[in-house]
Amino acid sequence: MKTVLIIGVGQIGKAITKRIIDMKPERIILHNLTKKESDDEIVKFKKLAEGIELVPSYGNVFMPYKYNTLSQEQEILEKKDYLLNFYYSNPTEEILKESTIYKLIEKWKPEIVVDSINTGTVLGSTYKPEQLLETVNDNSSEKEKTLTKVLLNDFVPKIINFVNSLKIAMEDFKVKKYIKVSTTGLGGMGINMPYTHGDTPKSTLSYALMGKISSAGVFHQLLWNLSHVAHLNISLVIPATFVGYDNAKFEPIETDIGLIKKVELVDKVMLEIGEDLKYNGNKTDEYLKFPVVRAGENHVYSLFEMSALTTIGQMEAVTKEEVADAVISDIEGKAYKNILAYLDSGMISPTYAGRTMRDKVISEIKSLMKENKTTSIATGNLGVTMAKQLYELFLIKSVCPTFTEITNSESETIYNKIIEYLNDNSDIIQEVLSLGIPILLENNEAYVGEYSLYPNKEERTKITNESIENWAKTGWIDLRIKNINTWKKDILEIQKDAEELKKKDECFTLSRNPFVIEDNFDIGELMGYYYNLKGRGRRLLNK
Asked: Which CATH class is domain 3-243+319-345?
């Protein structure tokens, strides 16, 4: 193992780092929110890590790389145009590659990424629905500023951006494994939990805790789906209990509002019904101190808080070393505590009955096609890209019904035949334009109907060579000779792959069926095979 990137070196991250050091990698990157945190950890681990390069790194991994050290609200608002575009515009590769997680992986090219940031707490604490409600009803000059803060605090686009960036980074730089240490949000308790994490409770749980649960849930679901991407190794470890402690000390008391100072003693007052509550006295310069246990993100707990929290039937407890053990076991291939594996084993997977039902439905559609003398190519309900690809294959097959004819024909010849076919079958043109799918021909000639799915009327539609290529790639039926030539190459690749699979003793790979790739091919089966071959199919959970 050469390089390991550890993100979030808190109490669990420290325990994991110690175990990673035992594995003797060449380099460990310790990434925290601030430079001081990372520098401090490097000093602490230096003696343990002889012969291992320790590298400090810092910045908010949910921010774009160029602004990942911004922390003050005013600083963030000054960059609002860039940040709003980063989180809310179409997540192109160009935008995703500006993310901190992508840049970190690009820079260090780790084989293993261990992420032990408590994402739920970091992002969920900003969940403030009352602020959004106030913004809706606000007619003041501050409305735009408040709405901007709401948008920049929303955890959903931040998590989506992170996961998308992680995907392309893992693919681009061949990361062997990403393992996330996360949270249940409530330490294994239910929504009837009788305490909070120091925040102000509402009628049930506080917004901060509900935000924590929600943001963790969004993250976990996205990671589960990411784990189904072929060739990506994703794990999720979740301690559902109180986790360890840093140390027990006699020290100043720290809460979410910082270190607590003692207040002056005051005299009793009479509470007058109907009057406003009046506050008395001032803070002194002396800090409130008593023995406490440090508990990571939740600052400190008193003796009785610790006792109540960890008693049987409440959160109870697990050591941070046990969490680290689960992480290391997962890295070593013994994924006995990977939540995603349990989700996989518990989900309802494809069945033989489902396959039989599928065949029956296809047969019924074919009968209706014959009865009504029509086609059934695409609706657009699987997305405009799938629809345009199916129509392209349909038109190619209409003039060259077999693989043999396609591969033996010049692309220009196929193009001319398709143009003749469309001239004789204008109902196909009418059909696709009705679906909102333009048709692109040679010399920038095109059929464009009353509207298009891509781009839609609200998007900028200035015609440039670049925009034409983008439209053709995403949502226009591209009949140009160069695209026909691309389809010919893909079809040859599919044929070659199917032939090689058929020669193997065990040709039922379950990810693609070579026996459906016949000379007189089925367009839908070919399309599915094409996606599987390009690594865009189901991950094989039985491997």
From this structure: alpha beta
Element (H, E) at 532: helix 523-533
Q: Sheet harboring 289-294: ordered strands across?
A: 248-252, 289-294, 300-301
How would you write 493-504 as a 3-class SS string? HHHHHHHHHHHC
**H-type helices in 46-178, by residue range?**
73-78, 80-88, 93-96, 100-108, 119-124, 129-137, 143-153, 155-173
DSSP string, 237-284: E---SEE--S-EEEEE-EETTEEPEEE---------TTSPP-----EE
Burial (CB count within 10 angstroms: exposed 0-12, middle 13-18, buried 19+), residue 338? buried
Give the SS3 label for residue 202: coil
Encode pLDDT of 210-252 as tens digits: 899 999 999 999 999 999 998 899 999 999 998 877 788 899 9
> Using an 8 Å Cβ cutoff, are 58 and 29 in contact?
no
Bridge partners of 300?
A: 294
CA distance linking residue 30 with residue 305, whole number of Å: 32
Stated pTM of the model = 0.85
What sections of 409-480 are H helices per DSSP?
Answer: 411-424, 426-434, 465-474
Q: How many CA atoms lie within 13 A of 356 on its CB side?
A: 3
Domain ranges of the chain: 3-243+319-345, 248-318, 378-533
Instruction: Give tens-digit pLDDT for 256-315.
Output: 778 889 888 888 888 788 988 788 888 899 999 999 888 766 678 889 888 988 899 888
In terms of residues, how long is the chain? 543
Average pLDDT over residues 130-150: 79
Q: What counts of helices (H) and strands (E) characterise the chain?
A: 22, 18
